[in-house]
Amino acid sequence: MTTSSTMRTPVKLPPMPSESEASKTYKSVDMARSYLEGDNLIFDDNDGFDRALRDGFFLLKAPSYMDFEHGDRFAYHFFEPATEGDLRPYTGFKSYTTFSNSYEGYFDREHDQWEHFRLERKHWHLMPSEVATLGRHMAHIGICVLRSVLTYVGIPRRDWELITNGISEGLENQMLSFNHFRSEKATRGSKFHRDSGWVTVLRSTERGLLAYINDELLAIDPVPGHLIINFGSSIEVLTENLTPNVRANIHGVARTERNGQRDRMSYVMFLVSNLAGNVYKYGPNGPTKVQSVKEFVIQEASRTYDDDNDTL
User: Fold this and answer.
1) Where do the segments described as Disordered lie (predicted)?
2) Does residue 124 belong to any structural domain of this protein?
3) pLDDT at 231 over 60
4) DSSP notation for 87-125
5) DSSP labels, 183-248
6) What CATH code is carried by the domain that includes residue 135?
7) What is the pLDDT of residues 77-92, one digit of tens each?
8) Is residue 7 part of a domain?
9) Within a domain: residue 109?
């Protein structure tokens, strides 16, 4: 058992349900709602910011300039064999498994319905230009959220670049990940897990996402015209000694069930630290280094993709 100071307290979880079981069993979270005013995060309700930090999830109204058509198309087709015609730029990505690192390209998760395709910003030229544009918009939103949160919890601007490994300044890593959940595969959608990064910007159009909030499993349901935002373990570790602090709550996807209908898809923008960086905690004397990002990511990933279904 690791003694890492960044390891979250183990949580005993119920088995991942199917979509139909989840819809009957788990009520929907009343998520705080927000929008961007310029680059500033504004919540509809006075207690919205505090609720968002406490729950680890909130809704953000998608700016009017965002067009999800091409991102949705890519998510629905990236795993299909390369084809001709209009879909040619959106297919054939299942063969992209030869990146020099271990975190980009196509992945088939052994224990999940989940297959996904991930690319860092420097490789977005491999996708249709409209998808890359959407990725830049999603990254900008994530950075606005991150900066607003750092301001809200009282961390001085001078420390942002160090503690976020440059993420607050728009530096790497900005990772787009497209997810397809194969209903014909008789297993969970995805394991319960925490994101390891800073801010996750999620485009989802269907129910199925569940989160463990305040010792209760609840549904994180999409709302038309809104993105779902959640926080990763990096910002939870950073702020755990502050008031207020940020929660990175556990979440996963119910087993997708379809009867001849299109499978579930989603896609996300992850803001994640470079593996060469460090993880910090913030306190009265400023930032304290607690672990390398590489060690932290290995620790978190080992609990995200294994076959241990009911403990995280």
Assistant:
1) 1-24
2) yes
3) yes
4) GGGGS-GGG----SSSSSEEEE-TTBSEEEEEEEGGGGG
5) TTS-SBSEEEE---SSEEEEEE-SS-EEEEETTEEEE----TTEEEEEE-HHHHHHHTTSSS----
6) 2.60.120.330
7) 999 999 999 999 999 9
8) no
9) yes
